[in-house]
Amino acid sequence: MQSDFTVIVPVYNVADYLEQCVQSIQDAVVQQDEIILVCGDSVDGSNKCAVRLQEKYSNVKVIWQTGTGASNARNCGLRHANGEYILFVDGDDFVDANVLSQLLEQIRSGQHKFDMLFTDFYRYKQKIEQTVCIRQFGKEYICGAEKIIGKMTGRECFWNIWRCIYRREFLIQNKIEFWENAYAEDLDFTIRAFLKKPLACFVPIAYYHYRLGRTGSLMNCTPSKRVMSTLTVIAYDINILKASNEIWKQKLIDVLQYEYILNIALIHELPQEQKKQALGIIKPEVLRPTCDGLVRVMSIMLRLFGVRMMAAVLSQIKRLKRWKEGRTL
Known about the structure:
The chain is α/β, with parallel strands linked by helices. The chain is 43% helix and 18% strand. Helix 7 runs parallel beside helix 8, helix 8 (224-242) packs antiparallel against helix 9 and helix 9 (249-264) crosses helix 11. The longest helix is centred in the C-terminal third of the chain and has 33 residues, at 293-325.
């Protein structure tokens, strides 16, 4: 029998958090829904924890990656999914079971029809134990990709896959999977989904708690592969947006251009040899044209002072921002 919902959880070195994660999901779903834990090469006991959870709950299924990385884990989960709708939850995060349960029941009853359903979310700053609700689209229900993008405020990233619920058939029909062996894979996934003209909706609730400041998190380290892969993916997606005919494309381009500049900061944190390699992939033309005044100023400064100097300045700004957000430095 087909499940209504499949929740896909990549499992990699999250032994201290996985049980809380799965329990919060378990409290939100019903028995016929499935939770897929996708295990890889963890070294901290995460896989044993996943197997124990499979033994404890009949609707939890453990599968094993065919490759490495979060993209491969999610793709493996998608290929094994049976639900009509897909949710992604990272193994070190958790959900508000009451809020998510109510949303899932609304979807089951036919209240929401969609290919992609966006929600607000919480940032949980672990270091200072503070929870902040992130709202980007206002406080009203919105239907239509153009309207959602039009309501988007600020320069915050909008592409987090765990803030969305996806209709699985939409993903299958449009062959939307994650870019393997790459970082910023959720950014690419979201842009390509938008370009397939989905029926998109926004519901002004928050159920997802995104944990900031976890020791060992990929977001707190700067390997050269992460830097170069992220810059490559952002540049690629800016270019495919530029080539599209969507009337809303420039607003997304502006946000991605800003993200491109932010990621230049990571170059400063690399060892000298890796820094030279990363400097070589910067493409200033990615930042042109833009409708964002700050991006325009940063683009001019990049040309005047060079990538190396800009990376050093941006790195200090980013460190201050991380400190204020309670992230591990």
